[in-house]
Amino acid sequence: MKDTVDHPLYGFAKRAKKIAVLWLLCAFSLGHAGAATLTARSTSELQTLINSAKAGDTVLLANGTYLDTTLTIGTSDITVAAATPGGVFLNGTNAIAISGSRVTFSGFQFTAGSIPGFVITVTGSQNLLTQLNFRGYSAQKYIVIKAPSQYNQITYSNFENKPSSAPIGNLIHLEAHSSIPGYHKIRYSSFQNMPGSGGDNGNENIRLSNGAESTFIARSIVEFNYFSNTGKGDSEAISVKCRENVLRYNTFNKNPDAMMVFRNGNDNIAYGNFFIDSGGIRVKEANNIYVYNNYFERAGIGGTTNAVTYDYITGNLKNINFIHNTFVDSGLISLSSGATSNTWANNLFVKSSGNIFSGSASGISWAGNMYWGASLGIASPASGMTYVNPMLALNSEGYFGLTSISSAINAGSSSYPSIPDIANVDDDPRIQFDASGQVRDALKDVGSDEFASGGITNRPLKLSDVGPSYLGGPGAVPAPDNAPSLNTVSAVSATRVDLGWTNLATNATGIRILRCTGEACVPATSVATLVPTQTGYSDTSVAGGTRYGYAVEAFNSTGAKASSIGYVTTLLPPPPAAPVLSVGSPTRNSLTLSWTADTSVVPVTGFDILRCTGSGCVPATVVASLGSSARSYVNSGLSRRTTYTYRVRAKNGSAVTLSNAVSGSTN
Q: Considering the domain boundaries, does residue 6 fall inside one?
């Protein structure tokens, strides 16, 4: 019965749960043995605490920005983390070495600075690097995991915008060993927005080993990662250069200039991946490659790549197998005459026009394939390629799958090579599941989708499905669940407005007071940030006789929700006392004014000097505006033997009072 088949994802979840329980039990026992949480407020203090930490300890670095950090984490069984995820920025020149084992390194951001070498180097085993953000940081490589370490994981991290001026080097590099498989995992991380000129230049997002280690067995897994707009940095989003690795459940979205590449090394597997508006798969110096249950939509369109590319190097392209894949409106599948003992079985090709294939189909066996709409572009095989409409339709996950009337149902062929079961890796060599994780029947459907009613466990990923929680990834704090209720907005005086509200959010970390000026305005300027329990505020930065709009906003690290808007007009300020003005000290081109002002009852916010020419005229022209402390003014640049009349206007906000009028004549 198919209901009894263990799904590989379920199996992984079960094992992960068991491992988590065992780890918690171990950590718990260690905790009872005196484990502590320690906080450093400088990176030098952090190093000291790491050096003296005991198994089970958590060493935190206080939130803030730190420059030029060099750390060596040689103590095993500890956690080194930012005080809050994403709260620590390690900028400048950084070099972090993790030689201990079972270390968790979490929550740090690298967003400004440079190093000519590697940011993080791991030589220990069973370490977890998680909740990291590399964005705009210049380095040759961000993370290097050295051989012969084992079972290290990189999870829930973001890799973005490595500067094109940075030294050439891939973002994550996993070394391989001649006799010790690594079993490393790169999971639930985002790779996006890489600048540059494109092409194959050594700036891959992920590189599994290098050409010199192509015969080494690594058995690493790259799964549940999201790639978008990385091709300008390098044409290889993932570059595999060693043996027995699994690339699965990754999504390549809007990544038309980069591909998944089996560059060197044999016996590798790719299944359950989604290539949407992206480059597809390239096979170069490799043999025994198994590509199954993958979905390609508009793959190899709009960029510099194909849906599939065979790149022949002498002695390679042997036993390359594409099985149960779906291609919808995709670019060319570029074949090579150098291929031998290849199999294309149970694939679906749907394309409205043009050719599906290019190059030579020699060396390929065909079985159970269906195509529709476009021309093959190669000589039609004698068998194994049927022209028929598979009747695809968009499913609930937004990609094309089979419908109940599809001729692809139960039409799969069993004529393809056995898929190897990689030792000690939870994989699916019998293709028991389709691309979405649904159980396949004994008579498998053609393409990546099985027409079934089971639950979907794999789907095209979104950016919010991966990466650090503080950048909106899984586990991110939800935005505030409710906005505050604004109860009162009252003008107390010309310079004060009081607000009162009720807090309704249960997960806010703060309150912002937003303000705008004018009738029917929308508050957008923050005038105060308060603790989430505060329910009142007096705004004393207002002007008298002015219309304001207010909203109270609850916020946290993910988002914010604002109350309704309350409008109020501040009171008119009282007029100040009238200044008493006198004029004297005439010269040929100047007169000196002086005045007294009583500010004991009503304050003065400034003075304007008004002038007219002649005796008995009414001063109206402002010749100077002065501060509240001014009590004299020299009016220069005047005409000789001319009479001028002055008044001083005292201001209190919008309220004003004029002094007596005084005349004076220049010499």
A: no
Total Cβ atoms within 10 A of residue 160: 21
- Give me 592's structure tokens: 């000196």
- pLDDT confidence bin for 557, thresholds 50/70/90: low
Domain termination residue (choose one: 524, 541, 569): 569
Does residue 512 lie in a domain region? yes
Neighbours of 638 (CB within 10 A): 18
Residue 3 lies in a domain: no
331 and 444 share one domain:
yes
Using the Cα atoms of residue 566, residue 567, residue 572 and residue 573 in order, give the sign of their dihedral: positive
Helix (H) or strand (E) holding 349: strand 348-350
Residues 59 and 172 in one domain: yes
pTM value is: 0.71
Dihedral, CA atoms, 388, 390, 393, 397, nearest 10 degrees? Answer: -140
Total number of domains in the chain? 4
Tell me the DSSP string of 526-583: EEEEE-TT--EEEE----TT-EEEEEEEEE-SS-EEE---EEEEPPPPPPPPPPEEEE
φ/ψ (deg, to 5) at 498: -100, 135
Looking at the domain assignment, is residue 621 inside a domain?
A: yes
Secondary structure of 468-496 in the HEC alphabet?
CHHHCCCCCCCCCCCCCEEEEEEEEECCE
Pairing verdict, β 37-40 and 58-61? parallel
| Tens digit of each residue's pLDDT (9 = 90 or more) over 136-145 | 999 999 999 9
Average confidence score pLDDT of the chain: 92
Measured distance CA(40)–CA(582) in Å, rounded: 66
Which residue shows structure tokens 């394309």?
Answer: 351
Measure CA of the first residue to CA of the last residue in the chain; give whole Å: 115
Beta-bridge mates of residue 554: 511, 561
Closest CA relative to residue 490, chosen from 501, 482, 481? 501
514: left (phi over 0), alpha (psi -120 to 50) or beta: beta
653: domain CATH number is 2.60.40.10
Q: Are residues 405 and 448 in the same domain?
A: yes
Q: Sign of dihedral through CA atoms 48, 51, 54, 56?
A: positive
Q: How confident is the model at residue 655 (pLDDT cuts 50, 70, 90)?
A: confident
CA dist., res. 656 & res. 122, Å (int): 72
Look at residue 656 and give its three-state secondary structure.
strand
> Residue 552 sits in which domain range?
485-569
